[in-house]
Hints:
The complex is a heterodimer.
Chain A: H1 26-54, H2 60-65, H3 71-81, H4 87-99, H5 107-111, H6 119-154, H7 159-172, H8 176-190, H9 211-240, H10 243-250, H11 255-292, H12 298-307, H13 311-339, H14 341-348
Helix pairs in contact in A: 1-13, 6-7, 6-9, 6-11, 6-12, 7-9, 8-9, 8-11, 9-11, 10-11, 11-12, 11-13, 12-13
Chain B: H1 10-15, H2 20-30, E1 73-79, H3 95-104, E2 109-112, E3 115-120, E4 123-128, E5 134-139, H4 153-163, H5 173-176, E6 186-189, E7 192-196, H6 222-227, E8 235-241, E9 245-250, E10 264-271, H7 274-283, E11 288-289, H8 294-303, E12 307-310, E13 316-322, H9 332-341, H10 344-351, E14 357-358, H11 380-390, E15 396-401, H12 408-421, E16 425-430, E17 448-453, H13 459-466, H14 484-496, H15 500-517, E18 520-526, E19 529-532, E20 536-537, H16 546-550, E21 556-557
Helix pairs in contact in B: 9-11, 10-12, 14-15
Amino acid sequence: MAVVPDAFAPDSAVALSAPPPGARHPVVAFILRRTGAGLATLLAVSVLIFLATNVLPGNVAVVVLGRNASPANVQRLERELQINHSVPARYLRWLGNAVQGDFGRSAVAEAENRPNSSISSSLGAPLRNSFWLAGFTTLLLIPLTLILGALAGIFAGRWLDHLISLPALVMGGLPEFVMGTLLIYIFFSKLRWLPPVALLSPGSSPLSDPEVLVLPVLTLLAVAVAGGVRQVRVGMADALQQDYVQFARLNGVAERRVLARYALRNALAPSVQIIAQNLQYLVGGIIIVESVFAYPGIGTYLVNAVTSRDVVEVQAAAIVLAALYIAINVLADLIVVFLVPRLRTGMSS
Amino acid sequence: MNLELGGGNFDSLESHRLTRREILTGAMGLGLTLTGAGLLAGCGSSSKGPSTAAAAAGTLAALPGGTPVRGGTLTVGVLSGGQSENLFPGTAALTPDFVRDYSLYNLLFYLGKEITPLVPGLALSAEPNKDATLWTFKLRDGVVWHDGKPFGADDVVYNFRALWANEATNFSAGFLAGLVDFKNVRKRDRLTVEVPLNVPVAEFPTIFAYFTFPVVQNGATAKSTAAKPIGTGPFKHVSFTPGSQSVFEANKNYWEPGKPYVDKLVVDSSFTDTNALYNALLSGSINLYPTLPLVNAREQVASKQVQILSSTLAAESYMFLMRVDKGPFADNRVRQAFKLLVDRQAMIDGAWAGFGTVAPDLLAPGTNYYASDLKRTQDVEQAKSLFKAAGVLGQTFVLPTCNFLPGMVESSTILANQAAAAGVKVVVNNTSAATYFTSAGGFTTRPFGLEVDQPVGSLTTAYLSEYTLTAPFQDTHWGHQAGGAAAQKLISEAIGATDPAKAAALWHECQLQQYNEGGYLVWGNLPYVDAAAGNVRGLSAGAGFSYDNWRLQDGWLA
């Protein structure tokens, strides 16, 4: 969860208060602190991932080899996976390589004697595919969340609010696979407008056939927007009740200006966090949506890795997803600081 | 007699299979009554099995024919095996592997549409000596590998000596362990291979119709195959991305004249969800969906959006295994009680949407000497009294299961419900499908579990697979129980019996023993139920795997 001061509570900016003379600029210090905290979190996560995939019951080499687990093969794979080394030594080696972008070689591919089994190279295409899926979703997610949430907040309790909030309540409660299936039913089974699967041949980009992206994006969007809209609505409704908004109105400021300059802008800070949460959700939600639509992204990659018991691939995919999750978190914190002048003021005053 | 199976192409072979009369006449001419090669359809006192009814209502035994249209791409969709997928046939364990192996390579023999008679592949015939301890394989002439080299005896000798003798390079090496004198397998001439055996095996060639025995090129290894697989099959390798997609092009020099009809074959194994696969089929993104969920198949039988193919013979056996040597099932009364308490038809209706036929605790339907006179009827009261006599009434049995093949979890749950009526409790433990059939997951060591048998060409192959001491899937530990040595001796005698009458009697005795004391509760036989998009033509169903041994070379697009 992001650690961000409440934009409406000046006290929360205490941690960002003015530095002693000669000290680092508070914004820079904040960035460094948040980045450092993110890296520390990632380090802790890396330990957990490594332990979880290495302290499994049974011998990893035997599990990976399956029916091919002859003593000679087990011995060979144990040597290649360095199972005989101590866990800390293996962890440090894995971490050192991962930091340099080398996630090792697929354990199953090693077991199968397959050449070119570098995980770093096989991760590229799924990551790119997922980037496009998440990217298009984000492009639509942010404005939709803000516009619908703001409208619902402005018209709280009125028909437009109900028109937005009720579907949001329903969609927010549906799991991705139900939403995906529902959309497939409507747009493929009934209307025959869109393909129900997003098959891509290896090496091809979803941009070459953008039609395949539509239903996966809609599914992610439906689930993510729904939650975000409700939260932005609350933020907007709260902002409209604040004294400064009432004061602006009493001073005869035009309603449109009140909404844009006073209410929306101040409602934006918590909205950034809400959107960040939704983006973090995408990192996890994408796994299920990719499976529903057979989309060859990082989620499918991870499911495949788990299915074939490829511990090295699982480690790589998990640490990349964790890094993304943490990066979004840190980035959201920084954006909030830049968006809300009072926080920066709090740092330097 | 030369057990010649046919000429140059499959179509002509289909119509030139030997009749029982031809075989018996030829065998008498040799002074030998042969039971080998699974070629003697109908010989022996028992019929081939209980499941030779027509394909399930509403399904097709063959897709529409007509004049084949050349060209196009046939796309097969299958669930992903991730990085575990491979191109080396001896270690194939997943559906995407089977599709590719049967397209890239050829077997010596193939299972027939109703298991027997076998259909010749790279071998045209197999001829035994008098006591079936030396087999002479005659190979097909004019076959070339994908790299242009001619196929011949050297290739087959290499497979025997280097690959089929070794469990690391062939999961089914245990079938041949102790039987084949590997060192003395030799090339007699360019197209003839002699295989000496340590013991007589009357139906020896039927073993090579098992799915792990496609023939690779002389010198090929798992490593070389992973980089560039070279086969003799109807399709040539273009690209292979495990867990994603593999592309093959038509082999213009294929030995079946005129085939394959399509230019390209794509095996899309990027799916991690059966619903996505089903949707891909309905949308036309893929043309073929083998072994689709039976509920979907039943739905399509009614709606006919796609074509559903189903074999006329239900040859894949589903069973619960019970270890006979130790643990709660070492007492045969407990095993018998479980066999008696099951309502098999209810299990088929509940777990398989009504597809399939009931099985009477016997393996290998459709093979020669299958004991079709043995039936099993439910008797809950007797089951209860047997449980009581064994002192296990009210006891709990833990049944590990997994969602690997159609109906495994469902049948486990149904068994648990039915067992309650007989006074015992079965607790179903749903475990990982990824490891269920591995030693790490308890395969071959667990006392109670599930097992599925692929179709085999003979009782010999079935028993070498499950019951002999070297059997690779020896999960009931048959032979390790009290009196096990005599049971093993009986199997050896049956395997070696060259006289059909004697073989029939011995195999009946083996099956009766399994029926009465065996560790398998075989409750149903399932046909391959496969789907094809509406524009696919030419394919047919068979008992030996989907699309009749994955004969995708027969397929074309309308």
